[in-house]
User: Fold these one by one.
Assistant:
Number 1:
Amino acid sequence: MLADRLAGAGDVPLLVIRVPALERTAWRDGRRAARAIERRVTAAFTTAVARVLRADDLIAHDRGTDAFLAALVTPMRDGQRGLAPVDVRSALGRIAATVEGLTQLDVDAGWTRYDAGEGGIAPAVDRALARGAQERERYAFFSAVGHELRTPLSSIRGYLETLLTDEGDPATRRRFVGIAYNESLRLTRLLEGMFEISLLDLSPTYAPAAHAGLAGVLAAVADACTARARARGVTLRFPDRAAVAAAIDADRLTLVLINLVDNAIKHGRAGGTVTVACEPAPARAVTIVVDDDGPGVAAAERERIFALGERGPTGADGSGIGLALVRMIVERAGGRVDADRAPQGGARFTVVLPRSDFPAPASKPRTGGQAL
């Protein structure tokens, strides 16, 4: 047993690779099917550690379990056993990537420091996997922060570059400065409130007093997304009037809709049309719909695309963060968001949110149905 071999070894890094498919397969298809997968994973793990670890490092796997272990016990050249955390994470990442690549199965990975006097292998495995989950959540959170800050920063940069390179008329220049200023304010609010939407602090509740008038939100979304739409030759269509309000913070709703409209622009048809519609819905709710006329999302993919790290099938650039954040924010506000097929054949994203108890000011009509 690994515990016996590590007795007296002192403090050593313990790497853990877990393959959830083993347990799922055993429950669904029986032990024989699970054993076939276990043999594949064992072979992949053996190959991975042979590429990454040193000759005297220890590996272990108990048959019938979903965890594969490696203890880094080989002393360094200077006689010191301890590896730096960055080196341990690098080794773990390479092993996990190799196992995933060879088996085409998802793995959970983590590491901890093992000491024989601290409770045995099983608690150490649990600690390693919990630590790995926390590190993945932390990475996802900071990736989300970067992704969401890029949107207003790109908008500000685009309008400022236009001002620097194009004389323009005074009214247009004034409008561009105003948009850049408003985006800078939104950027500030995002920074101040980012931990409210942290992936480490989810909450299903919403504040009934929160108020987001759709007219103002849609105007901000149009300003933020127009430059990207023009770059792809996409026409943006917004409702003439949106005299309704949702019970959600206005910045959060702006963030949600910018992500959805930006997603439609990127994954929809070049030269196509993205349409936004909103209306009161039954049971004191507000429905907001974003349609495009691109290739759409296959029925089997419509739930998966809301998962962290997942991207649409079109190959457009993206981090796989935006739609995950959209769902998180909407559900935290007591609503829901779904993907479906648009009447034009593309993708449809429907956001349903609680309606605000406060009256929403009527929006000013936009010329030509706000086709941008």
Number 2:
Amino acid sequence: MAISPDVLATALNELMPSYSNLFVKWHPLLEKVMEGGNMDRASLKGPKREFAVVTDGPGTVTEVATGTEIIAGGRSQNAHRGNVIAPRLIYAFDVPGKDLAEANGEMDLAKILQNYPELALADFHELISNQLGTGAGTGNVGGFCTLNGSTTFNPQGAGTRQGVFQFATPTQQIAAGNTVHGLSQATVSGWVNQYQDITSFAVDGRTQMRKAYYAASRQGKTLGPVDLMIGDEASYLNYIDDLDDAVRVAKIEGDKAPSNVRQGVKFLDANFYLDDSIDVSNAAFTAAAANDGVIYGFKTPTWNMFTLGHDSNRETKGDFAVRGPFRIPDQDIYRYEIVLMMGLHTTQLRANFAVTGAGTA
């Protein structure tokens, strides 16, 4: 009995929520943002979301010694409006009608799902993850946000935007005056990430990591310490080697990803994971220090994620949603599409950090 394109679409739609959740579970940053309740479906008039960034206190203190002092009032303007744009990315794949006609029963349907939709989704996930970690834009996903401050991304053709983490000290970041999430680091006080560089992991690796960790954790104290770190393979393995017998594997409650995909270790109060998507050999890492290893550190309550779209059957909800099938004119082919329209940003850049050089011996 042949399988119709609609049957395949129905099966794919039923599986898609678990596939989408698997991607979020697979990437530690997105998982923590989702678990923290900082993921929502936005209702915007366009692809751009604005958000408030407060970098200092709004008032002043008056000491009362005699009781006749005039209490200084007023308001310090320390609130700023950042913005982030959600790119619309569509991964399309085609299934020949001949394959559907030759299919026979549930076993063949499972094979088709594995050969087309599952491979397509896995490829799309990897492209997005690589863009987030490295920012090379491979596979036409260069509009999605990247953490790599050495490069830029271009959401919706709205102009180039700087990657989030700069590989420089806060003072150097202010002097360079890059714009992150629409806010100038030269003019917005405190709009910088913490940073340290390691000369040799054996000499000052953990020391520099602790400096960056505590510098970021001291910012926004009410939100807790830095709770997540991801790094390239060499940096991660150097840390494991340095721990020697003190290795503690981080346990992820309810984790559905394969155990060999998501293993991490503790660094102070943070879970530290290896991220293959941080490719420091890639030309997108133009900062020389980054070529020797990159670790990103996050205070995840300061991060937010949103998707755009409401109608599952038309524009989709933008969360790796599937759309189709559409028959290609003059061909015996049915097209399916996986749609992503997602934005990612932080509201407290100074509560996050980058460390370079951890890949050195």
Number 3:
Amino acid sequence: MNRPLFDANQANINVSNWMKEYLEKSGAKGYIVGLSGGVDSSVVAALAVKAVGVDSVHGVIMPIESNHNDEVDAIKVARQIGITYDVVDLAHAHRAMVTSYPAYYEYIDELLMSSNIKSRLRMTMLYQFAGDFNYLVAGTGNRSEDAVGYFTKYGDGGVDIIPLAEFYKWEIREMAAVLGFPEEIANRISTAGFWEGQTDEKDLGITYEELDNILMFFDSVPDVTLQVPRERADYVLKLINKNEHKTKYPPIYKRD
């Protein structure tokens, strides 16, 4: 994939400065970050530390019958950047939710329903911490995922601030490397940990390398040419149109 010049170090500085200014204006005391062990949440947490210091950032790790390695990696990230963290196992709450309405399984994909509940449970817990700490919830979405609506409405999409929403996945990996994260974090296979073997690329039906190339082409990034078959670009365009409702405020009826 042809990529434009990108100064990852300057991007980290710009984002952390923005996070610092935003927090000061908000009147809140710090940032809550849901840590998954993946590159996006790791970069957000590290930039929050650069913005407001280790004493004003708290990580929350929320396994729900997840791969134990995700929790291990998330703890490594928290310790590397020096923040406090809590591990909150939401498996019991998740089981209670999905078994409370069994008839749902007759017409809704079980894995999809279960995944959305997991995402919304995690965000509910993050806001519990945010309320207790008087912190803001820092989202971990990126340009690659947000553009095609790859997030759960009122789940991982329900946050106070989204520091990385202007950055493609490949840029965030470079930002992670500059921040000193090891290869296994910077280039970790992205997964929400919804079920065994689940990965973001499988869910999306496209690799991040392909997706980033297509989005940069759509965004008219200088010197970027489309390097995938046109039908792949058409597929991404369908995803964008299908999930447009996720990126807009709910429509409100206007009385005359």
